Every structure is written in C-alpha cells, then in structure tokens.
Amino acid sequence: MPVEERGLSSEPTLKVGRDRRLGNLATPISVQKLQTALHAKAKEEPEFRFYALYDKICRTDVLRHAYACCRANKGAPGVDGLTFDDVEQYGQERWLGELAQQLRERTYRPEAVRRVFIPKPNGKLRPLGIPRLAERVCQTAAMLVLEPIFEADLPPEQHAYRQNRNAQSAVREVHGLLTSGYKDVVDADLSGYFDTIPHVELMKSVTRRVIDRQVLHLVKMWLDAPVEEVDKRGRKKRTTTNRDIKQGIPQGSPISPLLSNLYMRRFILGWKKAGLEQRLSARIVNYADDLVICCKGSRAKVALDAMRQMMTKLKLTVNEDKTRTCRLPEGEFDFLGYTFGRRYSSKNGRPYIATRPSKKSIKRMIEAIHVQTSRNLEWLDAGEMVTRLNQKLGGWANYFCLGPVTPAYRFIDKYTTTRLRRWLCKKHKQHGKGIKRYPDEYFYEQLGLIRLPKLPQGLPWAKA
Asked: What's CA 221's distance to the chain center, in Å?
C-alpha cells in the first residue's frame, strides 16, 4: 500500500498508544509509568536483558488499554468472526478477564491468521493478515511492554512506526542529505521483505534484549501461526508455510512493525560497523521496507554492491528490476510517494533540488476521485459526495505538503471539479458539461468543497 494511503487502520495498532491520545483515548498513567521505567532501564544499560516481562503483559491495565487501542483502530474480524460489538455484548471486562486467565495459566494459543489480498498500484495483490481480536489484544499488550525497550536501540535512520517519526520525516531527511552534497543515490527495493525475514535470525534480535521465556514463546507462536485463505470457490484452506520454511511475518499484525524494524536494524548497524558509512560517505534512510542510500562523490554503485552482499548475508533479496542508482540533479528518483529532482525557481529561474508529489501518487489520487464520482454513487446527495471528496483531498494534502506542491494541487482541484460537475449532470439527467450550471464557486462556496491551493496556511498539512 502506498505510504500516503496508509490510514490509521493500516498503521500498527500501538499507534494510538504512542500518540498518547486518539479522541478521548489516553494511555493510563500506570501504563505510562511502566513504559517510562522500561525505556529508562534500556537506555541506561544497553547490554541489559529483560527477564521478567510476561507478568506485565498480563496486567489488567495493560490488557484493558491494549483492547482500547484495538477498538479505536477498528478492523475486520479474524477467522472466528468475533467483532468488538460481540465482545461488548458478551461483556468487555469478562472477555478480558478470561483472556488474562488464559495468559496467566499458559493455556493461551493463537488461532490462524485470516489472509486477504488488497490490490497494489502495479496491479498485483498484497497479502494482508487479519488476526483474531484475542491475538490483536495480546500482541498490542506485548507491544506496550516491548516497544519502549527496543525503541532505545533503534537507530535514527529508521523512521517507520516510531514516536515523532513518520514518512514525512524520512522524506525531509533524504532532502536534507541531497542538499548537503549526498547526491549519488541508491534507490533500493527488497523483494517481499516481510515474507522473507528469517525466524531464527529475527529471534536472535529479540533475545538480545529479552530473555523472558514466556514472552519469547508468545512471539514464536505468533510467527508460526497458520494462515487461512478462502479460494475462488469459497473453500477455506489453512497452511503453515511460515512455520515450515521458518520465515515471514504477517503484515497486518500489531507485532509485525516492531519485528520488521528490529530486523532492518541489523542491516543498518552492519553497514556502520563495516565502516561503509564513513568510507563511502553513504547515509541510509529507511521506512519499513523502503530505503535509499545517499552518497557523496560517485560512490552509489560501490554502495549498491556492498548492500547486495549484506542483504544476501541477512537472507533478504534485492529486487534488481526496481533497484537502481541515480545521480542528482541530472536524474531523479521516487521515495515514499515523492519525486526528488531538479526544479526551477519561479522567482529567478535558478535550479534547485526539491521534492514534489510523484506522478504515480497523483495518478492514484486521480483514480480515487474517479471511482468516488462514478455513476453507481448517483444516489448520494451533493453534500454527502463533497464530504467524501473532502476526506480524500484533505488526507492527500495532509501527506503531500512538502516542497512545491501547488501545481499538483491545482491539477487535482481541476480534475475534482470536472468530475463532480459531470457527476451532478448524470445524477440530474442533464445534458452538457454543466460549466455554467455548476461553476466552481458553487462547489467551493455553497457545497464547501476543499480548494487545495487555498488551504489555511496555519494548518501543518497546508504548508508547501
């Protein structure tokens, strides 16, 4: 899924816990104190290995907050079909109490992960795992306890799934490197990163900090959980591929973001320990399975060869079809939905290196607007249609707010009003293009459609 389209439901469940507040959801003081103590211990003693964490995961306040985080993120039911409404009808405290009892008595066993496939921009399908509510709550509880520990160890090059870091901070970091002379770039792509992370090596990364056997057993069970799919005939089939080949973590599980960061940490630390950062003047910027290496001089090809060797040792595969080197400002490359390349100042015509929304990102937004204004939605009233469009436009602008974005904003604005005008004519069975009947002022002033270039400059997502 493109990073700019990753909404709250596709972020790790702990996001609400990291941000401390989502609506009326706040991390309880007791949980905050626990996390602060764990993080402080990990920070003060880099070699310390935590041996008594399982009882923290079983704590009532931790499980209760984990459930609240999962509830706030919503999400579809797992293989058992259990929904949040079902739990609340049964009794939330009663359900959590029974889950806590299973954990304390060591009788808890994870069920299969329901696998669905979501379309990717290139037409292929991305597998997404949907665990049961019980697994989501247990994994989130584990994240509440484990993440403060491992956060102390993650290097600054990693921007995904971390407090005060996101895709935009990664984009800013890359732009800062480019403008500081790191203009020879490795635009890297890994083949099936999440599906190929080896379990044995991954567990070594976990045990470097955690030696509580019960916690390690939980993580191992989640890694080995079977997968349930439904074929074209509606028949359910369960496989144990991850357990059999001992590799892969399910995308969609709350524990997966932390585990993926832990394994990518191996590459970043290995790069530094091998002296490649200094010798090649090569800096890494990583977001989940996306990464670029920015180099000074003409060292990108050497850096690419070194990266291939290290990834092979980590049992990961470089996607040679999508991995390339690029020299700025002559060339350009895409990273996290943005294109990095040469632009010219509108004031004096001087060239400079800038970011802008990539053509693929604009195309995906255009396609989303096209689908939203299709004929099968003519039953909506105009106000509801504009509300839905505003959600898409505001979300897109919320992410694409770096660099000279005004040309992209204007293009999308123009397409939106054209599609909305056509939709209204079809809805009311009117002939013509409706330009005079539905002028732009009608959309912006009466219906309240967002005009992207005119967004209030005080909003952080409007700065360009």
From this structure: 24
In a domain, 21, yes or no: yes
The residue whose two tokens read 């940490």 is: 265
Total domains present in the chain: 2
User: What is the per-residue pLDDT for 121?
Assistant: 66
Task: Tell me the angle at which helices 213-224 and 133-151 cross, rounded to the nearest 10 degrees.
Answer: 130
Q: What is the pLDDT of residues 297-345, one digit of tens each?
A: 999 999 999 999 999 999 999 999 999 999 999 999 999 999 999 998 8
Alpha helix (H) ranges present in 152-274? 167-178, 193-196, 199-207, 213-224, 241-245, 256-273
What integer pLDDT is reported at residue 127 of this predicted model?
82
Share above pLDDT 70 across residues of the chain, in percent, rounded to a whole number:
92
**Residue 143: which H helix or E strand, with range?**
helix 133-151
Cα separation, 232 vs 289, whole angstroms: 30
Give which of 12, 5, 442 is closest to 255, Cα–Cα. 12
In a domain, 182, yes or no: no
Cα dihedral sign, 362-366-369-371: negative
Q: Which of 207, 236, 260 is the last residue of a domain?
A: 260
What is the β-pairing status of strands 236-239 and 227-230? Answer: antiparallel
Rounded to two decimals, the pTM is: 0.88
Residue 455's pLDDT is 56
At 194, is the secondary structure helix, strand, or coil?
A: helix
Q: Are strands 290-295 and 125-130 parallel, antiparallel or unpaired?
A: unpaired
Position 2 scores a pLDDT of 53
Query: Residue 462 above 60 pLDDT?
Result: no
Residue 4 is predicted with a pLDDT of: 45
Instruction: Report if residue 322 sits inside a domain.
Output: no
Amino acid letter, 182: Y
448 part of a folded domain: yes
Report the interhelical angle of 92-104 vs 60-73 (nearest 10°): 120
- Residue 31 corresponds to which amino acid? V
Residue 380: what pLDDT?
Answer: 86
On whether both 249 and 126 belong to a single domain, the answer is yes
Which residue among 206, 236, 260 closes a domain?
260
Answer yes or no: is pLDDT of 367 > 70: yes
Contacts of 359 (CB under 8 A, 6+ apart): 339
Average pLDDT over residues 416-436: 90
- Residue 131: which domain range? 11-159+195-260
Angle (nearest 5°) at CA 277 between 312 and 154: 75
Do 117 and 167 meet the contact criterion of CB atoms below 8 Å apart? no
Q: Are residues 367 and 233 in the same domain?
A: no
